[in-house]
Write a structure and sequence with these properties.
The chain is of the alpha/beta class. The chain is built from six helices and nine strands, in the order ααββαβαβαββαβββ. Helices cover 28% and strands 26% of the residues. The radius of gyration is 16 Å and the shape is globular. The structure holds S-adenosyl-L-homocysteine. S-adenosyl-L-homocysteine binds next to β2, α4 and β4.
């Protein structure tokens, strides 16, 4: 049986619309991304204690010392990914499953990997209950997901000290990787595009603050 948290009321829809207006005001311009945020019920991904804050533009704890990213950050990364229907996308850091669900709503086939066992189990169950098609995996995402590579796009939702080599290798030519890179205090959003000849081109965007990417090619 679905818990009361699985009800999407008019009030929630209204709050979501306000959030979308807020994101527009903060510079998100991609209408498909704004529509996806408008469609995905973020309150499904939060613990009951935080339901009332689900549509504030802020990060929130999801257990195991981790957080669901701030909606602005989800929108910003989603916008940088320029998702096309049926893009094969790898997400590192499933967390609550919210970012993965937004990407799915944009038409992507999403693979998502999480290194915290409890969070992985909990979110896998949640996504199943929601009839989501996101493919969830347990493991160290800094090594990518070689069994399903290559990917059109890769998104990292934790802060990396360096760009993991494995992720670059698992990109298709023409594909790109969106990843925050920096120290523990703050990270710069990078978009790394793989050219037809395999060389990499990097664009630099704003600063963000993510939880650390922990793993073989991370912290
Ligand atoms: N995308 C998530 C954000 C979660 S925060 C959401 O929408 O809620 C980042 C997540 O990355 C945390 O759950 C953390 O456990 C996970 N993480 C950190 N290092 C990782 C790694 N090497 N592989 C997979 N997941 C990792």
């Amino acid at each position: 049986m679905l818990s009361s948290a699985f009800q999407d009321s008019f009030r929630h829809k209204g709050l979501r619309k306000k959030l979308v207006d807020d994101l527009r005001g903060k510079g998100i311009t991609d209408e498909a991304v704004l529509q996806a945020i408008n469609a995905v019920p973020r309150h499904f991904f939060l613990d009951l204690a935080f339901l009332e804050l689900a549509y504030d533009d802020r990060a929130m704890p999801i257990g195991e010392g981790q957080t669901i990213s701030q909606p602005f950050t989800v929108a910003f990364q989603s916008q940088l990914l320029e998702i096309k229907k049926r893009d094969k996308v790898l997400e590192i850091g499933t967390g609550s499953g919210y970012q993965a669900s937004v990407l799915e709503k944009l038409g992507a086939k999403v693979y998502s990997i999480e290194r915290q066992r409890k969070l992985y189990e909990k979110t896998r169950q949640l996504l199943q209950n929601m009839n989501s098609k996101v493919s969830t995996h347990f493991g160290d995402g800094t090594l990518g997901l070689p069994a399903f590579a290559p990917f059109d796009k890769i998104i990292v939702t934790a802060g990396a000290p360096v760009v993991p080599q494995s992720l670059c290798e698992q990109l298709k030519p023409g594909g790109f990787l969106v990843i925050p890179v920096g120290d523990e205090a703050n990270q710069r959003m990078l978009r790394i595009r793989k050219q037809a000849d395999g060389s990499l081109e990097t664009e630099t965007f704003d600063n963000f603050k993510f939880v650390p990417l922990v793993g073989k090619e991370g912290w």
